[in-house]
Each structure stands twice: as structure tokens, then as C-alpha cells.
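Hypothesis: this fold can be encoded by more than one sequence.
Test: take the C-alpha cells below, design a sequence, compare later.
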């Protein structure tokens, strides 16, 4: 059986390797393995996302959806040491790599977990993702419908998608699906990729503002 990066339990040999990658303004050495996404290098899409997404908030809960061996989660953890980072993947080998890499960097604010292990009450100050496009459109849409609504109010998700793998159609779908209380923008392009931003706005005020003494 051929392993995919979205396989839950890859059966191929790990073939651990060490690679050097730029994260959060520094170069670090991390461990990758076969059976996960882009084990040889920091992939171009993730590099575009990291270069074009703003600095994450100083604190709160952050989500890296489809974390792989962890470059997005680790970058956020380095930039925001007081935040709690949820690195989520279905691939157990990928989660193990994130834990190893977080430990090697001395990061204690990274939780590498399966999707069902994120507590239901957690909402996210930011979501950053190079989503698993090759799982298919229906699964991808289900992922978005599950996690985008868990953005906190006045918070943003940043997604990087290759243009020839459907970034423009995904942008249209996001805009039509999240049309009440959200905005969807394209914020950057590079190397054939689009960075899409989904903004969740605050809840509209339904009661008139009561002024002091009135």
C-alpha cells in the first residue's frame, strides 16, 4: 500500500532526516521523515505563507491545520512564546515529528494532536494552514466548515493554496459559504500560490449603546 501524507498511520520506513529551514527570522535544524508532507525541504507554499502572513498575536490559542512536520506551528510558537499552539494532523508520524521538533527547540507551547483531541471550547486567535488539497474537494470543504467557525471574533485565518490546484475556486467557495460575519480576501501571490485571508468580524451590536447617566 502506498502511503500518503494524509495517511493516519504510515507503514513505510521512517527514513529520518535532518534539514535546515528558516523560521521566525532564524535558521533551525529540524527532523523530518518519509510518509509526511514535503520531507525533503520547506515546501514552496508554506514558504509563501510564512513570508506573507503577519506576525501572530502575542497570546491566545493558535491553530496549524494539517501541520505536517510542523513548520507553521513551530514558527508561530517561536514568534509568540506566550500563545498556545495546536498543531493538528491525522498523520501520527507527523505529530510525532512536531513533538520532536518542538522539544529540540525548547518550545513548551506546542500541542501536536489529532483533530478530535482539540477541546471543543477552544477558539482560535489565528489559523494558519497549507491545507491538504489532495484529500479532495468534499473533504477539504468539510475541514473548512469545521475549523473556520472556531475563529475567535475579530480574528483571521490565512490559507495558502496553489493556483493550479484550485485557489481561486476555493476563495469563491469560502466567500459564499462564510457570507455572514466573515470576509474573504486574497492577500498575496507568489511562486504560483495564493494566500487567502478569512476574517471573522465581531458580533453586531443588537442593543442600543446605553450611555452613563441615561
Amino acid at each position: 500500500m502506498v502511503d500518503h501524507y494524509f495517511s493516519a498511520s504510515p507503514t513505510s520506513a521512517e527514513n529520518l532526516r535532518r534539514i535546515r529551514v528558516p523560521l521566525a527570522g532564524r535558521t533551525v535544524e529540524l527532523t523530518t521523515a518519509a510518509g509526511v508532507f514535503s520531507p525533503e525541504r520547506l515546501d514552496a507554499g508554506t514558504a509563501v505563507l510564512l513570508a506573507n502572513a503577519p506576525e501572530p498575536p502575542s497570546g491566545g490559542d493558535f491553530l496549524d491545520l494539517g501541520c505536517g512536520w510542523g513548520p507553521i506551528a513551530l514558527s508561530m510558537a517561536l514568534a509568540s512564546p506566550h500563545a498556545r499552539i495546536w498543531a493538528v494532523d491525522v498523520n501520527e508520524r507527523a505529530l510525532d515529528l512536531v513533538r520532536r521538533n518542538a522539544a529540540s527547540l525548547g518550545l513548551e507551547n506546542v500541542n501536536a494532536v489529532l483533530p478530535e483531541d482539540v477541546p471543543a471550547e477552544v477558539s482560535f486567535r489565528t489559523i494558519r494552514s497549507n491545507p491538504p488539497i489532495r484529500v479532495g474537494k468534499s473533504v477539504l470543504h468539510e475541514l473548512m466548515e469545521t475549523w473556520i467557525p472556531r475563529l475567535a471574533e475579530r480574528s483571521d485565518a490565512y490559507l495558502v493554496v496553489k493556483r493550479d490546484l484550485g485557489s481561486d475556486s476555493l476563495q469563491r467557495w469560502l466567500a459564499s459559504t462564510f457570507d455572514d460575519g466573515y470576509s474573504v480576501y486574497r492577500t498575496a501571490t507568489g511562486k504560483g500560490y495564493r494566500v487567502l485571508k478569512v476574517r471573522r468580524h465581531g458580533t453586531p451590536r443588537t442593543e442600543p449603546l446605553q450611555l452613563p447617566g441615561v
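The first strand starts at residue 17 and ends at 23. The two ends are 72 Å apart (CA to CA).
Hypothesis status: open.
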